[in-house]
Amino acid sequence: MRERLEKKFINLLIFLDLGKMKRKIPTNFDGVIRIQNRRIRKLMKKAYKIPFYRERFDRAGVKPEDIRTAEDLAKLPLLYKEELRAWMREEEKNPKYDEWYHDTTSGSSGEPLMILLSPREKAYMMANWFRVMMLAGYNPFFGKTMSRKSAHSVSAGYDTQMQRFGILRRGFLDQYAPEEEMVRQVNEYKPDFLYMNKTELMRLCLYCHSHNCEIWQPKYFVPTGEKTDETARKLFKEVLGPGIIDSYGTAEAGACMVKLFDSTEHVIHHDSFVVNLHDDEGNLADEGNVVVTPLFKTDMPLINYAIGDRATSETRNGVRFITSVQGRMNDYFKYENGNRTTFFEIAPIIAHSPDILQIRFIQEDWHRIRVQCVHNREYGNTTEEIEQRLTKELNDRFKEPFAIEYEWMDSIPPDKNGKLRMIVCRI
Hints:
The chain has helices at residues 2-8, 10-20, 30-47, 51-60, 81-92, 119-135, 161-164, 179-189, 198-210, 230-240, 343-351, 383-397, and strands at 101-104, 114-117, 144-148, 169-173, 193-197, 220-224, 245-250, 254-260, 266-268, 273-278, 287-294, 305-316, 319-328, 332-334, 340-342, 356-365, 368-375, 403-408, 423-425. With 427 residues, the chain is an alpha/beta fold. The protein has a domain at 332-425: GMP Synthetase, Chain A, domain 3, CATH 3.30.300. A seven-stranded antiparallel β-sheet has the order 7-8-9-13-12-11-10, covered by helices on one side. A four-stranded parallel β-sheet has the order 4-3-5-6. Helix 2 crosses helix 6 (119-135). The relative contact order is 0.11.
């Protein structure tokens, strides 16, 4: 009964939660860290009452009162996707969750994951997304937002009474339409804030770039769902303007940190999340695997959730800032002797290749790689010249040389989930 009412009044819950959030990046984080510590203690007490977590606490020999700060969370084991998937499948059978939200991930790292969210948790996640907008200076209540269509998106324009009065206006961009139709929709709606999957946004911007096509430049735009590499970032800014926002998070936990415009670092939403980095031995580190704990998820917690990305960080005055997000740990090239080369070992080559607008590597077997590329003709280098240079530079970085063949395209099609993996290893 409670959950049914909360679902009915979810917009009110969103407004109430947003009112409690920090909507500007602090100059002094002392107060935010106090909020974080208070919420950590509350989360630990509630989690210990849940059998799934009580077993994890007991296995680690830890009590709720032993965990009072972000660093203390390292005393508990990491939660991996497969463990979460198994737990969610078991909990989903319980009728008490019938009024909860049953969200699913895109399946970018394999099988899609169903995640249970109480209406209160769902409201907080939505409010947190509004917070991301407001941190950049956008007013989501009176501005015009445009996003990709979802399964529930039917039309653009004024769909509700509030929107007719200019409040919470939201249009939808058909990401499946031909590029010229997408451009028409953006130019017609003229959004202040545009967000869609990074690969879909890349397809749109590649079309505008190659056809010298004028498109409306929103004040703010967010490429979602995937890491935005520097080549893509440069193209986005050229086509859509300087208002790029990098919001990092997951479908399971929400947006946990943000990088605004030309900033060199992500700022964590410390009042709502803990983001720790663990080295390969499981110790807290300044560089390592991203581990997220959303502090608002107290009904169905995600404690020490290992996202699967790597990052680097700096800690200043006891506050962690993420200086780079390196993406999926499973993006690598394989060799017969068991060695690997990650994408990040060759990333500097790509970053210094302005004559390539988009790229993907497909390892066909132990000795052969196919490279899909989109050519930036503005730089005057021929595809033959690029292939010769790129092959030499890549094989200088690879632990063993590959036979490399190239496939030049107008744009690289996304995977079935709508995203674009930088490396597809078929071994």
